[in-house]
Design goal:
heterodimer, A: 570 residues, alpha+beta, D-Maltodextrin-Binding Protein, domain 2, Dipeptide-binding Protein, domain 3, 2 domains, eleven-stranded mixed beta sheet, three-stranded antiparallel beta sheet, 21 strands, globular, B: 337 residues, mainly alpha, 0% strand
């Protein structure tokens, strides 16, 4: 017994000695990143979430990136194709990329156009289940003109030909490594998926799926003397709040990703003075979708929330006055102050950025106006009953409001419920597990596509810096219904001829300024018809240590896009 | 005894098959979807293709039998090959159980995570037992003394305060304020010399203590009750009458008898070492089996969750059987016929 006590005492004392003797004069060249959602694979084409794409982005690269201002920057290409420099065909049916000739893969072999062509073939194989496939929308073929020139042909004129190989969602894979991994075999190439050979500043050294990735500097990296860091570790697991703590309070990590944490919690941690909180705005907008179809639970499966060419209108949300009143009653600033802090701003548009696309016609929504909302409802014949809820012809303004399970969203829900109560609208709240709500499984009644509720809230955005594909979502033909297995991006089931014909004009317009003007109008139609109620323009929030320099957060591409430039200054 | 054992083993097989079916059916009925965590910008058509590539669109029974074949035939064959280096049949085209999240074999994922789970959860179990047994014995022997009162209070606290709370409190005290221990566990750390061993000790300290506290609280109450029960029995009085010293009565006679049910308890608890500690692993980012399971559940990774929970079922059935056998060996009064 005495011997055990002595041993324990010894162990404890050595432990303390050990903890005191960790000082070194040299600058630490280990970079420690914390992703509370751990990377599951380093092949972005097979990813199950943004975390994988980010973790892969420091190894494999696309032809061009988006910078923090949503501008395209060439990475593996010599220049950004434009019509002026002749790389985009006059008829917008093809785009030509010139590869840099000084780029080698981390195994020492040359990057050629064969790799680019292969990457297209890899992702568009019908059995591959490739996450990035939408980047190759309308691509007819990718041709290697010569070893360093690639031409991408489109099936129809593409006013925005920067889907393929721009941004970290569609990078270039090495042909040599992935050539036997086409189609269903993609899943069996574990070695290639976990240790992809890339052109980026780092090489994967050790990959533990859903846990840790260790990288070391790529000796073949194109820029002399970069990267500064020799070892990069991405650790995963835990939750957002504890990730923020590990950077801001304990200083164990240099950077933590995606910190949707209540503002006051983050503020408290920041006061420890070890790091700072960074935000970058992209195209993410938290919005309320307003169901234009009747979602009455007593309807059968082929009718509930089905558009039926406009013959199944919602009993009260089809009244524009009700929708406008719902939007007017919301105080967006309070939602930001309580749930988002620096991570959000009130917005009245579904396209919040890039700057040139932002409409200025809807700013009045930023001020809450309960009186006006009440007046509109009153005028439209919705009269308050004895229970304080407005009704007309026996139809009560009682809405079912659903969203995904997330503490910030539930906070927002209850705030809005209170605001709507003031205009005589009764609200029932419901939240659904994110994996179900966003999963889109046609067999589940709780997906956002089925929309078995009156209103629902979530964040949507568009890929890249061009909203052309995104605005197509509100076409009448894109309404999800049982016939198309509930596939289609027009979730609120809003439909107008004006919108569709304007969209036709857009597809025939190639002048950049005219396109911008049309897209702004399309945004206005969505917002002014109140198919969707934009609430908050959301930012990416990350935390970084004070010693980490050269960091620039990006709302349009991988947050690690400038990792080669990062350095440490004690 | 042998007859009893073989009978029990024989009944274990249909039990496990039923469990595997129920698990598969439950997971299949669960409404979440493997494409649920993908960015909103990915359209439904692409999601459908991803589901197709995972084989999710095949009928239920085909997927179940496919899993059975992969799990009960292909995986063991593969394991034998890896261990012995022999090649049995066409091993290249043999399909393994693959996680949908990582597209890599589930068994490899589990093996990768065993070290940290066994170290942290296993050690905490041993530490917990080492704390619990003496406290339980002393508390019973000196019933209603100060020691007993404090012991009861502490184990009540350990029993009722959840590990995510004790874990957080420890992080705030020992990582944030004192900076003694790291708040995250580095699974890539390799112990090769004394300093790296101390680092390992430091990073294990908090999760092990949190779990040990929790385990000890339960076990010490059990130990106390068991000793109390024995204290007033006739054989104790006989031993006293023979003039034996209190110490040897307690340590030789009472302890041996009161350990019987406790050892069964300990044996029944062993599977929890392998199943990991979902919450504690998450709090300290130990990323062991428990964290793997919860990641799998959150992303609807059916093959992973199915295989893991089935392995848990096997462990539980095995250790139940083992506990019965140990009981029979330790206590000659019990005979299985």
């Amino acid at each position: 017994m005495r011997r055990i006590t002595a041993f324990v005492l010894l162990a404890v004392s050595i432990l303390f000695l050990g903890s005191c003797s960790q000082e070194s004069a040299e600058v630490d060249t280990n970079l420690r990143l914390l992703y509370w959602q751990a990377p599951s694979t380093l092949n972005p084409y097979l990813s199950s979430g943004t975390k994988d794409i980010e973790a892969a982005s420091i190894v494999i690269e696309p032809l061009a990136h988006y910078d923090a201002n949503a501008k395209k920057v060439p990475i593996l290409a010599t220049r950004i194709p434009t019509v002026e420099n002749g790389d985009i065909a006059e008829d917008y049916r093809s785009i030509t990329w010139h590869l840099r000739q000084d780029i080698v893969w981390s195994d020492g072999t040359q990057l050629t156009s064969a790799d680019v062509v292969f990457s297209w073939r890899y992702c568009t194989h019908e059995e591959a289940g490739c996450t990035g496939k939408d980047s190759f929308r309308d691509v007819e073929q990718v041709v290697a003109v010569d070893d360093y020139t690639v031409r991408i042909d489109f099936t129809k004129p593409a006013p925005f030909p920067f889907g393929p190989f721009v941004g970290s969602v569609s990078p270039v894979l090495q042909y040599q490594q992935f050539k036997d991994c086409l189609g269903l075999r993609a899943q069996e190439c574990t070695e290639a998926n976990f240790y992809p050979i890339g052109t980026g500043p780092f090489i994967v050294e050790e990959f533990k799926a859903n846990d840790t990735v260790r990288y070391r500097a790529n000796p073949h990296y194109r820029e002399e003397g970069k990267p500064f860091f020799q070892i990069v570790t991405i650790k995963g697991g835990g939750d957002a709040a504890s990730a923020a703590r590990a950077v801001l309070q304990t200083g164990e990590f240099d950077y933590a990703w995606n910190l949707q944490v209540e503002p006051e919690v983050l503020e408290n941690m920041r006061n420890a003075g070890k790091g700072e909180v960074l935000t970058a705005f992209g195209s993410q907008v938290e919005r309320i979708m307003v169901n234009q179809t009747n979602e009455d639970p007593s309807l059968d499966a082929d009718t509930r929330s089905v558009y039926l060419d406009g013959n199944n209108a919602h009993p009260f949300l089809s009244d524009i006055n009700v929708r406008r009143a719902l939007s007017l009653a919301i105080d967006r600033q309070i939602l930001v102050d309580i749930g988002y802090g620096v991570a959000g701003q009130p917005t009245c548009n579904v396209i919040p950025l890039p700057e040139q696309y932002v409409s200025t016609n809807n700013e009045d929504c930023k001020t809450q106006n309960i009186d006006e909302a009440n007046r509109i409802l009153e005028e439209a014949g919705w009269v308050k009953g004895s229970d304080g809820v407005r009704a007309k012809d026996g139809v009560r303004l009682s809405v079912l409001y659903q969203t995904s399970t997330n503490s910030v969203r539930q906070g927002t829900q209850s705030l809005i419920k209170g605001m709507w109560q003031e205009i005589g609208v009764e609200t029932e709240l419901r939240n659904i597990d994110a994996a179900v709500f966003f999963g889109g499984d046609p067999g589940s009644p709780d997906t956002l596509q089925k929309f078995f509720a009156d209103v629902q809230m979530y964040t949507n955005n568009f890929e890249g810096n061009d909203p052309s594909n995104y605005v197509e979502g509100w076409q009448c033909g894109n309404v999800p219904d049982p016939e198309n297995q509930w596939v289609g991006p027009n979730i609120s089931r809003g439909c107008s001829e004006e919108f569709d014909s304007l969209l036709d004009t857009l597809s025939e317009t190639f002048d950049a300024d005219e396109r911008v003007a049309i897209i702004k109008q399309l945004n206005d139609i969505v917002v002014q018809n109140v198919w969707e109620i934009p609430l908050i323009h959301r930012a990416r929030v990350s935390a970084k240590s004070n010693t980490l320099k050269g960091f620039e957060l990006n709302g349009w591409d991988s947050e690690l896009w400038t990792i080669a430039e990062w350095y440490r200054e004690e | 005894m042998l007859k009893y054992l073989s009978k029990r083993l024989f009944f274990a097989i249909p039990t496990l098959i039923v469990i595997s079916f129920v698990l598969f059916a439950l997971l299949d009925l669960a409404p979440n979807d493997p494409t649920g965590n993908l960015p909103q910008t990915i359209p439904q058509e692409v999601r459908e293709e991803i589901r197709e590539s995972l084989g999710l669109n095949k009928p239920f029974h085909i997927r179940y039998f496919k899993w059975m074949q992969q799990f009960f035939v292909n995986e063991p064959l593969n394991l034998i090959e890896e261990v012995t280096g022999l090649e049995i049949g066409d091993s290249d085209s043999r399909l393994r159980v693959r996680s949908w999240l990582t597209r890599s074999p589930v068994v490899d994922l589990i093996i990768e995570r065993l070290p940290q789970t066994l170290w942290v959860v296993g050690l905490s179990y041993i530490v917990g037992i080492m704390i619990a047994l003496p406290i339980g014995v002393i508390s019973a022997y000196k019933q209603y003394s100060w020691f007993d009162q404090i012991g009861t209070f502490i184990s009540m606290v350990g029993f009722s305060v959840p590990t995510f709370f004790t874990g957080l409190v420890m992080i705030i005290i020992f990582s944030v304020t004192l900076s003694w221990f790291p708040s995250t566990y580095d699974t890539t750390h390799v112990v090769k010399d004394l300093p790296s061993f101390w680092f390992q000790v430091k990073q294990m300290a908090m999760p092990v203590m949190v779990l040990a506290f929790y385990n000890a609280a339960q076990l010490s109450r059990f130990m106390r009750a068991s000793v109390l029960e024995n204290l007033n029995l006739d054989y104790v009085r006989t031993a006293r009458a023979k003039g034996l010293r209190d110490r040897s009565i307690l340590l030789k006679h009472i302890l041996r008898n009161s350990m019987l049910p406790v050892i069964t308890m300990i044996a029944l608890g062993v599977p929890t070492i392998f199943t990991g500690a979902i919450i504690t692993e998450q709090v300290f980012r130990v990323n062991g089996i428990g964290q793997l399971l919860i990641t799998g559940i959150q992303s609807a990774d059916i093959p992973l969750v199915q295989s893991l929970s089935f392995l848990f079922a096997v462990l539980i059935v095995t250790f139940n059987l083992l506990a019965d056998v140990i009981y029979g060996i330790l206590d000659p009064r019990i005979r299985y016929e």
